[in-house]
Amino acid sequence: MARKKIALIGAGNIGGTLAHLAALKGLGDIVLFDVVEGIPQGKALDLSQCGAVEGFDAKITGSNDYADIAGADVIIVTAGVARKPGMSRDDLLGINLKVMKAVGEGIAANAPDAFVICITNPLDAMVWALREFSGLPHNKVVGMAGVLDSSRFNHFLAEEFQVSAKDVTSFVLGGHGDTMVPVIEYSTVAGIPVPDLIKQGRSTQERIDAIVQRTRSGGGEIVALLKTGSAFYAPATSAIAMAEAYLGDKKRLLPCAANLTGQYGVDNLYVGVPVIIGKDGVEQVIEIELNEEAKGNLQVSVDAVKELLDACKAIDPSLA
Ligand SMILES: NC(=O)C1=CN([C@@H]2O[C@H](COP(=O)(O)OP(=O)(O)OC[C@H]3O[C@@H](n4cnc5c(N)ncnc54)[C@H](O)[C@@H]3O)[C@@H](O)[C@H]2O)C=CC1
Ligand SMILES: O=C([O-])CC(=O)C(=O)O
User: What is the enzyme's main class (predicted)?
Assistant: First the structure.
């Protein structure tokens, strides 16, 4: 059987980490693409030289030519710019929208059958725009944010309850911004709902509320520490989990930015919801019962994403 091909558009911090993880996990041969000459080639050579130590034999190449992504099974897009302290993700919209146009056209022309995972921020607007520019089916274009945000929430909850993060599950829904919606009612430690753990006196509502807030500003906390860019290890790990779900037809139920067609009362917009990922890409959007507070919070988040889509349409009328 032919090896799978993984194309990474953007060979920066996340792109390089994605390539490393994909090679270590044996997902397939890897093409790192970037507009900057030398960066993808240099990273590809460096990563290839891990193979003899790690025992992997993936072919890793760097390129500045979209023709080299031809036939890719999975494409992960991180092309664009990351924020610096003092900026919001939304401040990246103007510059990254132009990047999404180039990337969408490159994918459409060279790898229209790929499963495309977008990471570039502001995520919900960029994945929507990338889908529009590429013209690929909606089920084959998905955004990564919820896996990362839930993983952050799980990490903080694991610290709070002093348990392994492996035993914590949660859903963070909505847009990947300050309005994201960590849902406490669906957060558990080995199946025990967090509200029950609060009742047992293992934490307090105030402490959990502070964790929700820390999760919401989890990206900004790292930006403030790094000063030169944003998080990249956990974002890369999260996207690789989504790629593995597709390549292995795993039917994983993950929170991802998916196109909604009426679910949650939302139409024609990408936002974070639980989805099943398998060989057909986003195979199902799962609707979960939300209490009134979570419903209201999700609506606020959806409205924030809508505003970003309007901003995209104002910048590029071809999207209107
Ligand atoms: N969705 C999420 O949860 C997360 C999203 N992000 C976002 O991911 C993006 C990438 O982050 P990093 O890898 O840290 O940034 P980075 O700056 O290290 O890498 C971005 C790369 O994109 C390249 N690039 C720029 N324009 C391009 C184009 N037209 N075509 C191809 N490549 C192009 C740059 O040369 C650079 O190598 C940012 O927008 C960041 O905000 C970051 C973390 C989490
Ligand atoms: O905060 C940022 O700019 C990067 C990001 O989306 C995250 O780490 O969640």
Answer: oxidoreductase
Cis peptide before 274 (omega within 30 of 0): no
297 is in an annotated binding site: no
* Position 297 pLDDT exceeds 90: yes
Residue whose Cα lies nearest atom 7 of ligand 2: it is 219
Does residue 96 have a known ligand-binding role?
Answer: yes
Angle between helices 205-216 and 218-226 (to 10 degrees): 60
Contacts of 298 (CB under 8 A, 6+ apart): 173, 174, 181, 264, 290
> What is the distance in A from the centroid of ligand 1 to the CA of 262?
31
pLDDT for position 1: 81
pTM of the model: 0.99
By alpha-carbon position, which residue is closest to atom 10 of ligand 1?
A: 78
Residue 255 neighbours by CB distance under 10 Å: 27
**215 ligand 2 Cβ < 6 A:** no
Q: How does 18-48 read in b/e, with b if 16+ C-beta sit within 10 Å? A: bbbbbbbeebbbbbbbbeeeebbbebbeebb
11: three-class secondary structure by DSSP: coil
In this structure, what DSSP letter does residue 318 have? G
From atom 1 of ligand 2, which residue's Cα is the shortest distance away?
219
Give 181-219 as a DSSP string: EEEEEEEEETTEEHHHHHHTTSS-HHHHHHHHHHHHTHH
Q: What gap in Å lies between CA 177 and CA 157, rounded to an integer? A: 20
| Catalytic status, residue 138 | no
